[in-house]
Amino acid sequence: MPEGGGIIKRTLYKLFEPVLERISRRLANKLILLFTIIIILVVTSLTFISYGMLRKESVNSSISSTRSNLLLVGRNLESYLDGIGQLSLPQISYDEFNYAILHESEDYGSKMYVEDYLKNLYFSRSDLEAIYLYVIKEHKYYYVTKENYNITVRVVEHPPIENLPWYKRALASPFNRSYQSLLKERTPEESQGDYPINSDKSFMGYHRLLRSIVTREPQAVLSLYFNNSVTNEIMKDIPFSEGEHLMYISPDNEPFAVDDREFYLQSEQAGLLQQLTPAQGGRLTWSDNEQKYLVMYDISQKEGWKLVKPIPYKQIYEAATTTRKLSYSIGLLFLIVSVILVSFISNRITNPLKNLSLQMKRFSTGSFDAEAAVEGNDEIAYLSRHFNKMVEKTNELINERYKMKIVEKNAVLKALEAEINPHFLYNALQAISTKALKNDNDDIVEMVDNLALTLRYCISGRDVVQAREELKHIERYLALQKARFGSRMQVEYDWNESLLELRIPKLSIQTLVENCIKHALEKVSNTVTIRIEAHITPAHSVISVLDDGPGITEKRLQQVLSSLQIQWEDRGGEGTEEGDNESIGLKNLNTRLKLLYGEEAALVIASDEHGTRMDMRLPRGGLGQHV
Fold it and tell me: Where in the cell is it found (predicted)?
């Protein structure tokens, strides 16, 4: 810190030392002092800055007023365009007018009807500068304009207009119309073949394509050219000051009324028109090479015409510039004072915390003999004392944890010893199989081998297996059951080859097969067919186990389905009824499906007097979608 700052710090310390001695007894008092000083500084600064904020608020009110004016004028312009659309369409005389267009070249009466119609149309509006009616099949147009205070109708030969841009737009428009801007300079290619229009007197052309009612083929094009009288009258209601601009833009971003053509061209090249979207809320900030603008605009809801008013930010904030400079000066002064005060007070607060932090760092690196110095009776001293107690308790917990590790290792050893028993049983079965093989007892050999492989599959540590492995296990399991039930048990398979690699919970199919045996084979003495199949639906891979046994009673089926809705951790541990024991395997399987595959997986059971069907539905995404 500079020498001058050190002098100020020492002077302040001497002045406030008695007060600080009393305040420093409690951390809360220190923080209160700190935040009180900050609040005083902030409030004082805001008091001086509020003048500038009020000025800015007045500017915002002016912007709100501009937005309202734009909305009102935009609606008036939209009504003006609607009136033009109504004007361009023959109302009750459409059939007569269409007939006259078709026969005007060969019928003098039809020609006079067309001329009278165009004259009446011209007289109906004071803002009409000229009217053109182009007859497509004749390649000529009727031209109506005022010459020496007389309304004159002329017929002029004209080349085809198919390549004119405004004709193409009208042809493609669902409303059979197009607008033509006369403000934007056109290339020779664009103006070639167009009507001879004086763009100094007209600002817009409106073209209506007239089609045949029967064939819908284009018959003629009615073109109306309007002067600036109406738009000037409507737009004069918008507040307009020096430096501001005003533009009326079509939905295709063509200018129809601008106060400064150079500014329009500059904004178009800079991409301003593409940013005027409803998503901007009628207001955005834009800058050219010289200055920054607040662009206020209104987009008509019906067709998307844009009324745009860019306002320079320099003009908006001109009144607040002086106040802002003054606020910066005052804020800088108070900032310097705040830094000095905060630095002085924070050092008094943080020194004890630094000592406590150092001891915590030693403790975190494994030095469990760390001990913080306790000074005073404030909150930091309280934390230091409890930190020391925490270190003491930690040492005690470490000793207890060491003892628990020893107990845990002993438990692991006992668990490993428990794993020896299944392997011993598997080895014993292999010895029995070898002995039976030597004595030519092939049936016993096959049964023991199947039992041994089944045991090995059951005690394997995997929870999820491929469907191919589960099916091999089911074949061995059913071979053992075949020895029990003989020819009464018939098994059929219908498994989609693409699902052999499907990953499913281990012993899931066996659970379903066991229910078929218990509720079908064990209940009757006749032959029962168990069918195992798998197929694909748009949303699931479905594994089904079916039997043609007597089925499950309606009451029992409802009990089983209700039990599937109970969360596994909510099941009763005591007093379980026999029926619940029978369905515990299904509840277990349903819970495993939910845990592995999510809520889209399900176990669906249906039964009647013709048999039982159990579907295991797995989402098509497979196990990776959830786990």
Answer: Cell membrane
